[in-house]
Write a structure and sequence with these properties.
Blueprint (H helix, E strand, L loop, with lengths): L11 E2 L10 H16 L1 H24 L6 E4 L2 H11 L7 E5 L4 H14 L2 E5 L8 H9 L6 E7 L11 H11 L2 E6 L10 H4 L3 E5 L11 E5 L25 H7 L7 H4 L1 H10 L2 H23 L15 E7 L3 H10 L3 E2 L2 E4 L2 E7 L6 H16 L4 E2 L4
Parallel strand pairs: 1-10, 3-4, 3-5, 5-6, 6-7
Antiparallel strand pairs: 2-8, 7-8, 9-12, 9-13, 11-12
Length: about 400
């Protein structure tokens, strides 16, 4: 599949989790859409582009398993979660329950808006290593109390690359009468997803990661019964519209001033690409390779995995726990000296090297990372985290 992508062949790209890469046919379609925009800006932004946006939303809704009118395309998950966090009706003393594993930008977002409302952002500490799903759920729900009003949690975590038991959490949250907000940035294209079956109140995801859309294509799903309180981040022509549609939710959130929304329109081409190349099978192969190499790394470097190395917790990414005093320097060394694009993260004072395995990756790519880590460990650039 390497020939289907535009990635620099001199770089071993093991960081699809941060930013995906467009396949050539998707990128070509994206450029054609931008060309149409430039050839007839007014008609495209006001007329034809809006029809294409509607078609893109419908195509994405079928892929995600939800109603098209409960879905709006946005530039990134951070924009979507900010939309929710700014709007959510929280009062003094209310609590938003989350984990100690969330994406840093989301922690900052909730901290900011909770402070403005007098609410509390409560992070349940997830203890490593996670022994089982039951152990995770026990850690998570230990933070629940009578003030808890909202659950906010990642479907797949960023730095630690763990699949969390979202279905169990959504079921229990509903039983407790809590609002559920799921950060699924890494999920579409990496895991099977049916939003209606999960039944969250809010689900946010990226199309420009594992779905391989152009950068700046993501979505916000809000259950119809909750859409009334979700304000747009930007007030524009959709408010008190001269030509209102059947959905105030769509009017408010699809109209956001002048912008190039061509990335949104490329989403159906991503879905077509995945269908053409039997992505269910390829995704399963990549997950199996991720598990295989996670076990190879664990066996050699003798670290405790932060969770069981199995399909319940691991998708197409895996995070290796290490100790280093120079996170940025280690990442730079991997890139500049070994030509490997792989992230080195800090999460709650713990450091991880996280690799991603996508369709264009190979055993040779993983061997390069393995050899580079052996060399850098021997040279003293990092040690292995023992969780003692």
């Amino acid at each position: 599949m390497k020939e289907q992508f535009l990635l620099d062949p001199n770089i071993t790209y093991l960081n699809f989790g941060s930013f995906g890469a467009c396949p050539k046919p998707v990128f070509e379609a994206y450029q054609q859409l931008q060309l149409q925009l430039e050839q007839s800006p007014v008609q495209f932004i006001v007329e034809s582009g809006m029809e294409l946006l509607k078609a893109s939303r419908h195509s994405l809704s079928l892929y995600l398993g939800c109603a098209p009118d409960d879905l709006v395309l946005m530039t990134n998950p951070s924009y979507a979660i900010n939309t929710i966090a700014k709007s959510i009706p929280l009062n003094v003393g209310d609590e938003v329950l989350t984990t100690s594993l969330e994406y840093g930008a989301m922690d900052r977002t909730w901290d900011y808006y909770c402070k403005k409302s007098g609410a509390k952002y409560r992070q349940s500490k997830i203890n490593f290593p996670i022994e089982s799903k039951a152990a995770f759920l026990k850690d998570f729900w230990s933070g629940y109390n009578e003030n808890t009003k909202v659950v906010f949690i990642s479907h797949i975590t960023s730095a630690t690359a763990l699949i969390l038991p979202i279905k169990d959490i959504c079921l229990e949250a509903k039983r407790l009468g809590l609002l559920t907000i799921i950060d699924g940035a890494h999920v579409p294209g990496q895991l099977p997803l049916n939003i209606d079956e999960l039944n969250p109140d809010v689900y946010v995801g990226a199309c420009h990661k594992w779905m391989m859309a152009p950068k700046g294509a993501s979505f916000l799903y809000v259950k119809k019964s909750q859409q009334h309180w979700v304000d747009p981040l930007l007030i524009s022509w959709g408010y008190q519209s001269d030509t209102p549609s059947h959905s105030t939710f769509l009017d408010y959130h699809e109209t956001a001033g002048t912008r190039d929304f061509s990335a949104f329109l490329a989403v159906p081409y991503c879905i077509d690409f995945m269908n053409k190349y039997d992505w269910v099978e390829k995704r399963s192969f990549c997950q199996a390779k991720t598990l295989e190499w996670a076990q190879i790394f664990q066996s050699y470097f003798r670290f405790k995995s932060i969770a069981p190395i199995d399909e319940a917790f691991i998708g197409q990414m895996y995070s290796i726990p290490i100790e280093t005093e120079d996170v940025a320097g280690l990442k730079s060394l991997l890139y500049e000296r070994f030509h490997i694009e792989v992230p080195v993260f800090t999460s709650n004072s713990q450091v991880f090297i996280r690799f991603s395995y996508q369709v264009f990756n190979s055993d040779q790519d993983m061997q390069r990372l393995f050899d580079a880590m052996k060399t850098l460990k021997a040279e003293g650039y990092f040690k292995i985290e023992k969780f003692e």
